[in-house]
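Form 12-C: Joint structure prediction
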Amino acid sequence: MSAPHEDDRSPQPPGVDSGLDGPTVEALGAVLRMRMQQAVSGLEPHPGTLEVLRRAVPARRRRRHAALATTAVTVFAVSAGATLAARGSLHTERPKQAGGTDVGNLMSTGADGVPGGGSGHGPAPIDGQQMSSPLSAATSAGTSATSLSQTSKAPPASSPSSTAATAAPALPACQSASVLAMVGTQSPPNGGVTYETVIGTVKSACTLAGTPTLMVSATSGAGGGVPQFRPDPAVAPLLAGVPSGRTLTLQPGDRFEFQYAWVPSGCPTQAPTSAATSAPTSSSGSPTAPPATPVSTGATSAATAPTPTRPPTPAGSSTSSAAPTTSSYVVSFALSGTQAQQSATFAAACGATLYVTDFFPPEGQGVRRGGDAPTATVPAAR
Amino acid sequence: MAAEPGAGDVSVDLLTETYRDHYASLLKLAALLLDDTASCEDVVQEAFIRVHSARTRVRDADKLLAYLRQTVVNLSRSTLRRRLIGLRLAPKPMPDMASAEEGAYELLEKDALIQALRGIQRRQREVLVLRYFADLTEAQVATLLGISVGSVKAYGSRGIEALRVRMEAFR
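Section 2 - Result
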């Protein structure tokens, strides 16, 4: 047999070299038509072909649909897997802070809108610090400061999407024993107001909420009470605007921060005679009217807040011609107990007022916080 | 077509009707196009399966025969080109069983015209089979093969001449 699959060369016009004219072609065509019919006349379909087709057609449809579905599922799985892998790689490649703090918390810090006033002044986290369990932290925590306001708050019952979210309810409140280091940074007086930034580092997991209680004592032994208030932008504009009502969930190595402003009171030029024997009140001595909701210091701080031995001398009295004597005050802080963990010295002649922020995470550290309500405050004791 | 294509059962009915009307003629067409009679049944069955599996083609009942014929031609061409042997949907008879068509295929193999057809060019054979066996017009053959009408005429004329020469050689 010659090659049946020859090339598809373009044919020449009919009759050019075939030697056949039109009627001859037609006649041969008729004969060819008859011979073809005769040649294949005996061919009949194979028995059972119809049954085969009836089974094969639906099967082919099913295979086609299955192939389409498989392709769609495969494409979806590959795309989803690639997406998840990309996200996973980004998550695992997230660098860690030196002290083990997740740098990813930076994002949450920014999202919370917490300004980092005084950030960067705190101590560097301690590398290689052992992670203590919440249970051990709870047993090692002191019990003497339960009366303090910041330690009286229970951990939040619910916590947001944080790795410490599940452990947050079991974490104890931060005590003095929970603190590894605490550093205060005092800024130069600005408009007569001195700002102090305190950054502490915890060594065990705990929670912190509310406003720190500051203890004020006069080194000269005299003086009046120093009331504490929530930040007032009109008086201390450089204090960080910290939203209240937050509970910080701190892991070992995490830092917390708070700020306060020391606002010396102006000495009165005229005062009633009875004022010589009484300590100046916060309303009379404050450069501006204090907020309506003063910050609590509690009964404990009231007992520890001494009064200056030399009360401010009002003008117009027998000693009005003499300049008021400046007294030194020591403002100390302790998470629990009465032993100061951090202190700073300030000067004031006629008393002063403290404006204290809530605890907040330093800039660069994420927020692990609960959602409890702001704590009730008690006016400052004198 | 009495059955309305669309649903599965209706499609089966259409398949049965199409099978009764066109399967035998398409099988004979494949036997003339192919040089391997064993592949004829496979080619036609595959053509039926392909056309009826595609619901869009089944819906257009008027063009169903055209689709089937086009598919048979394409599959026959593919079989000739690549010796496609994967289309084995029909159950093969046992070696010791003599099928009813065995004699018909033997006669087909011995037919001088079939032998002569297998000796000419594939294009010429396709044109001759479609033109004179399937009774298609030159335009229909041109459309089916994807060539011009002039090429159909040329292939037909030269194919007849080549076929005549080969038929005389068999005598």
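Section 3 - Comments
The radius of gyration of chain A is 43 Å. The longest strand of chain A covers residues 255-264.
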